[in-house]
Recover the amino acids of this structure.
């Protein structure tokens, strides 16, 4: 009887384990992006805007070292919102698009300049490389994370030194420095090319989208992520949508 129970238990565990592997495999397959030729694609464009009352002011970070090089404090660059309530550094993207144009070959880039990451927010593409540079005459230890798990942990001791790494995972990559706790930046790593960051005027355009209906989302480091709904893209036309944060 005891033997039978052990056999049944072993079987149950192994079935559960196999089912888990199958589910993981399916998930992986489902997420794969396919490159196709896009002719006469459409676009989605709009602005990232603060739609509430008074927009939050940017924060200030106090420096605990390197004051002689970088001063006593630095702007956090978290809320870059101009007089027209247009928001910089919002990443607008098509969520779960399965196929479309090829991913740009451009490398991503993050520099350490005056004790801050430059650019503060950028978009990178999974599978491409990223150059991480130190332009400061001080040691920076760039330590990046996706969902709390380390992606890179790089000591950059020399001014002008640069390390090139591959971006193997997609997701919002937080970039920090182990030597300087106030330093923070982001690389939004997308597995497809339909992700863009807004500039000073909050505007964005996602182009060469195959005609169809797409879920659009917008991410901001302070406001989080919002859903812009399902947008219909027609061939050769531009659909308009704004990313409104509150
Ligand atoms: Cu640093």
């Amino acid at each position: 009887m005891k033997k039978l129970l052990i056999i049944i238990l072993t079987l149950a565990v192994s079935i559960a384990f196999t089912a888990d592997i199958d589910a993981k495999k399916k998930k992986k397959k489902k997420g794969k992006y396919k490159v196709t030729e896009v002719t006469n694609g459409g676009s989605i464009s709009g602005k990232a805007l603060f739609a509430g009352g008074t927009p939050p002011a940017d924060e200030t970070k106090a420096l605990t070292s390197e004051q002689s090089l970088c001063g006593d404090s630095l702007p956090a660059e978290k809320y870059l919102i101009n007089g027209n309530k247009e928001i910089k550094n919002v990443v607008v993207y098509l969520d779960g698009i399965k196929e479309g144009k090829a991913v740009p070959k451009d490398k991503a880039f993050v520099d350490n300049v005056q004790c801050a990451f430059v650019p503060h927010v950028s978009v990178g593409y999974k599978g491409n490389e990223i150059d991480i540079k130190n332009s400061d005459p001080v040691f920076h230890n760039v330590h990046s994370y996706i969902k709390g798990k380390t992606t890179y942990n790089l000591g950059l001791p020399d001014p002008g030194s640069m390390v090139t790494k591959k971006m193997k995972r997609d997701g919002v990559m937080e970039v920090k420095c182990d030597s300087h706790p106030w330093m923070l930046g982001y690389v939004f790593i997308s597995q497809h090319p339909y992700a863009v960051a807004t500039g000073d005027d909050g505007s964005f355009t996602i182009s060469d989208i195959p005609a169809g209906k797409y879920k659009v989302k917008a991410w901001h480091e302070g406001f989080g992520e919002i859903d812009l709904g399902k947008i219909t893209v027609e061939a050769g036309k531009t659909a308009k949508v704004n990313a409104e944060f509150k």
About this structure: The longest strand covers residues 224-233. Confidence is low (pLDDT under 50) at residues 5-13, 15-19, 21-29. The CA atoms of residues 198 and 204 lie 5 Å apart.
